[in-house]
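thought: user wants a sequence for this fold. calling inverse folding tool.
action: design(structure=
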């Protein structure tokens, strides 16, 4: 089921990859975002489909990073992720 809501986990995955500014495996993302490996993979793929992340299909693990064209591809989701990060960060 697709949702328009932005979860804390999705936000943490986005922020972790954005902060790293390099290629990361789903396992790297999971550790940085403090989410399960499966959650990291799922959210990374969602962000690839939204044009926010680039994906390198390499063996043994795909890698993800923020796309240089993310703001051109889907500025609306970037703004929503940034706003969600601000909200979630203020709750800490």
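)
observation: tool returned 92 residues.
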């Amino acid at each position: 089921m697709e949702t328009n809501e932005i979860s804390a986990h999705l936000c943490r995955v986005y922020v972790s990859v954005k902060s790293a500014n390099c290629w990361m495996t789903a396992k790297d993302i999971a550790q940085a975002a403090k989410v399960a490996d499966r959650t990291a993979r799922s959210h990374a793929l969602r962000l690839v489909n939204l044009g926010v992340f680039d994906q390198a299909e390499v063996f043994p693990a795909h890698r993800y990073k923020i796309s240089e064209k993310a703001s051109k591809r889907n500025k609306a989701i970037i703004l929503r992720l940034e706003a969600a990060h601000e909200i979630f960060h203020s709750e800490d």
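thought: summarizing for user.
answer: Here is the designed sequence. Helices lie at 8-20, 26-33, 37-49, 70-73, 75-90.
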